[in-house]
Amino acid sequence: QVRLVESGGGLVQAGGSLRLSCTASGRTFSSYAMGWFRQAPGKEREFVAAISWSGKSTFYTTSAKGRFTISRDNAKNEMYLQMNSLKPDDTAVYSCAAETTARPGDYYLVADGDYDFWGQGTQVTVSS
Known about the structure:
four-stranded antiparallel β-sheet; seven-stranded mixed β-sheet; mainly beta
């Protein structure tokens, strides 16, 4: 069983920044592919960013590219999402996810169905 806990959400003005953290339980965090997703009120959950187990491979949705940075510290069992130049459209509950199958290779995953475990989420609200 893997437990994921997000933190770092809050209220910020448009143009501001937030850094989300995802802390994972488990001794094999360094083998997990990880991702960030978000869900705005009345909308479906959408992919934001993903990172491979090594941290060497990353991928972003178009709206996040150039503004958000995903990273991880395997020694701390933590993953991060640095969000800059925030917009009101970024308002959502942000959740981290882990895929624990540990397939061969350095890969990232963008489909929510590929992830095994999810955190409860942290609210990000961007005011205009």
